[in-house]
Amino acid sequence: MTDLTPTETKDRLKSLGLFGLLACWEQLADKPWLREVLAIEERERHKRSLERRLKNSRVAAFKPMTDFDSSWPKKIDREAVDDLYDSRYADLLFEVVTRRYDAQKPLLLSTNKAFADWGQVFPHAACVVTLVDRLVHRAEVIEIEAESYRLKEAKELNATRTKQRRTKKH
Fold first, then answer.
1. Distances (CA, A) of 16 to 31, 43, 48, 168
2. Which of 4, 19, 28, 125 is geometrically suited to a Cys-Cys bond with 90, CB 3.0 to 4.6 A?
3. Which of 56, 59, 12 is nearest to 35 (CA)?
4. What is the pLDDT of residue 44?
5. What pLDDT does residue 86 have?
6. Which residues form the IstB-like ATP-binding domain (predicted)?
7. Beta-carbon contacts of residue 137 (< 8 Å; ≥ 6 apart)
8. What span, in angstroms and rounded, lies between the C-alpha atoms of 2 and 56?
């Protein structure tokens, strides 16, 4: 762990709401264990926060790739599947979709790519077909034809900045 300045240590104590320790700062400032206790408290709070949010989301249990029954398909190259499963982003999305699907809970998803193009978005993911299948199985797909709102906002911001620069020059 990197050494913290006294100010940084006090800020961490304050952000954690450890006001009793802050009140005894003069007695604790030089204690070698204080920074480690802070790190432990921050890690545990972060862990509990994630666990609480996961519980409140009512998402079902993860289904890791190791639980995949490779004897189910008539033919499968397990090594090829393992190699393809390096695409963590697709895996994470797949986990979210699978949990919502299995729990029969709603999921709102916005994409600027047609489902047919998802193989290009996740080129090394073995789960793309299943992912799309689960997304559309009980879905109401609403197509929106419009310019990207981010692009629209960026153009408006750029126009405002250009106008401001021109005003400053004159």
1. 18, 11, 14, 45
2. 125
3. 12
4. 92
5. 53
6. 89-155
7. 101
8. 34
Distance CA 160, CA 152 (A): 12
Take residue 168 and report the two structure tokens written for it. Answer: 């400053």
Element containing residue 98 per DSSP (H, E):
helix 88-102
Query: Which amino acid appears at position 79 of this protein?
Result: E
- What residue type is assigned to position 167 of the chain? T
**DSSP one-letter code for 157:** H
Q: Which two tokens stand for residue 13?
A: 């104590």
Sole residue written with tokens 């300045």: 5
List pLDDT tens digits, range 20-79: 999 999 999 989 899 899 999 999 998 898 888 877 876 666 566 566 666 777 777 777
Task: For residue 11, give the nearest of 45, 46, 19, 36 by alpha carbon.
Answer: 19
DSSP 8-state assignment for residue 74: S
The answer to whether the predicted template modeling score (pTM) of the entire model surpasses 0.85 is: no
How many alpha carbons lie under 13 Å from residue 61 in its C-beta half-sphere?
4
| pLDDT at position 23 | 94
The answer to whether residues 91 and 125 touch, using CB atoms and an 8 Å cutoff, is: yes
The reported pLDDT for the residue numbered 24 is 93
Go through 41-67 and write b for each residue having 16 or more CB atoms within 10 A of its CB, e for each that does not.
beeeeeeeeeeeeeeeeebeeeeeeee
Burial class (CB in 10 A: 0-12, 13-18, 19+), 131: buried
